[in-house]
Design a protein that fits this description.
It is a single chain. The protein is an alpha+beta fold and 279 residues long. It folds into three domains: 3-77, Ubiquitin-like (UB roll) (Roll); 91-214, Alpha-Beta Plaits; 231-274, no CATH class. The chain has eight helices and nine strands. The chain has helices spanning 21-27, 79-94, 110-117, 155-163, 198-202, 214-222, 234-243, 264-275; strands spanning 3-8, 11-16, 51-54, 61-62, 73-75, 143-145, 170-172, 179-181, 208-210. The strands form three sheets. Strands 2-1-5-3-4 form a five-stranded mixed sheet, sandwiched between helices. It has a two-stranded antiparallel ribbon with strand order 6-9. The longest helix is centred in the first third of the chain and has 16 residues, at 79-94. 25% of the residues are buried. The protein binds iron/sulfur cluster (2 copies) and FE2/S2 (inorganic) cluster. One iron/sulfur cluster binds next to helix 3.
C-alpha cells in the first residue's frame, strides 16, 4: 500500500493513500470537531465544522472529505479556522429551537457539546420563535421528529437509505427552507418506516427521539386493578447482556441455571428445541 507523508500542525504524519485529513489527524492524536460526519455512514462534507487550512490553498477545506496527498501541510487550529467554525455553529444555532432544558437530548447532544467546546457563549443571530417553529411529527408509534432541532447533517437520511435500505426520509426544499422530511411532507407514520430507531441512534441532536411511554407505564403501575407484566424486545435484551459482559447463548444443558441473554434467532431456536417431543 502506498504511504503518504504530510504535516499536521507541523508534526510529520505518514498514512495510507486514500486517507482523509480527518482520519490522518485522528491517527496523529489531533482533534478536529465534526458534526455531520459518521464514519462509513455519512461522509458528505455538509456542515463545515471540520474545516482546516491547507498551505497554498485559498479556501478552508472540509477535513472529513479531503484526501491527503504527498507533502500536504495542514493547520487545524489557526485563528481563521477557529473563527470560521464558530460562525458556522452560530448560524446553525440561529435556525435551531434552543430550549435545551426541555429537550430530552440535553447533556447528551453533540450540538450542545460542540457549542461548549467552541466557546459559543453568546449567539449574535436570533433563534426560532413561536411563529417560525415547524410542526413536530409525533404520530409514529416510536419515533418523534422535531424539525426545529434538525441541523441538516443528513446522517438519518444515509442510515435509513443505505444501512436499513428503507429510505423514507430525505431533504426537501432548498437553501434556508431545506428540511429533512418524509415524501410529500407526510408523517413517518404514513410511510413504510420500520421503526428500527437507527435514525434516532445517529442523530446528533434532539431532532429524532424515541417516543416515551413512561407516563402510560406509571399509570398502569399505579392502577390497583391491573397486573403489570414487563417484557423487553429481544434485540434490546441482547444489547443489555452484551453491555454487562454476559455470555452469549450456548446449547442448554440440564445443569445450566445461569441467566443468559439470547439473540432473537437463538431465542427462537431454544423455543423450538423445548417444543420438540422428547425421545
Ligand atoms: S438538540 Fe441539543 S442544542 Fe438543541 S435544544 Fe436539544 S439539547 Fe439543546
Ligand atoms: S434529523 Fe437528526 S440526523 Fe437527521 S438531518 Fe436532522 S439532525 Fe441530522
Ligand atoms: S464534519 Fe466535515 S463537513 Fe461536517
Amino acid at each position: 500500500m502506498k504511504m503518504i507523508n504530510l504535516k499536521i500542525d507541523g508534526t510529520p504524519v505518514t498514512v495510507p493513500e486514500g486517507t482523509t485529513i480527518l482520519e490522518a489527524a485522528r491517527a496523529a492524536g489531533v482533534k478536529i470537531p465534526t458534526l455531520c460526519f459518521l464514519k462509513d455512514i455519512n461522509e458528505i462534507g455538509a456542515c463545515r465544522m471540520c474545516v482546516v487550512e491547507i498551505k497554498g490553498a485559498r479556501a478552508l477545506q472540509a477535513a472529513c472529505v479531503y484526501p491527503v496527498s504527498e507533502g500536504l501541510e495542514v493547520i487545524t487550529n489557526s485563528e481563521k479556522v477557529r473563527k470560521s467554525r464558530k460562525i458556522t455553529l452560530e448560524l446553525i444555532l440561529s435556525n435551531h429551537d434552543r430550549r435545551c432544558l426541555e429537550c430530552s437530548r440535553s447533556q447528551n447532544c453533540e450540538l450542545q457539546a460542540l457549542s461548549k467546546e467552541l466557546g459559543v457563549n453568546e449567539i449574535r443571530f436570533p433563534a426560532l420563535n413561536e411563529k417560525t417553529l415547524l410542526p413536530i411529527d409525533d404520530l409514529s408509534p416510536s419515533v418523534v421528529r422535531d424539525p426545529n432541532k434538525c441541523v441538516l447533517c443528513r446522517r438519518c437520511v444515509s442510515v435509513c437509505k443505505n444501512v436499513q435500505t428503507v429510505g423514507v426520509i430525505d431533504t426537501m426544499e432548498r437553501g434556508y427552507r431545506t428540511v429533512v422530511a418524509s415524501p410529500f411532507g407526510k408523517s413517518l407514520a404514513d410511510t413504510p418506516c420500520v421503526n428500527c430507531g437507527q435514525c434516532i441512534a445517529v442523530c446528533p441532536t434532539g431532532a429524532l427521539t424515541e417516543k416515551s411511554d413512561k407516563s402510560k407505564v406509571w399509570a398502569a403501575i399505579s392502577d390497583p386493578e391491573k397486573y403489570v407484566v414487563f417484557q423487553t424486545a429481544p434485540a434490546v435484551r441482547f444489547s443489555i447482556g452484551e453491555a454487562f459482559g454476559m455470555p452469549q447463548w450456548s446449547p442448554p444443558s440440564e445443569d445450566s441455571a445461569s441467566t443468559r441473554f439470547l439473540t432473537p434467532t437463538q431465542a427462537r431456536t431454544l423455543r423450538s428445541w423445548k417444543r420438540a417431543p422428547s425421545s
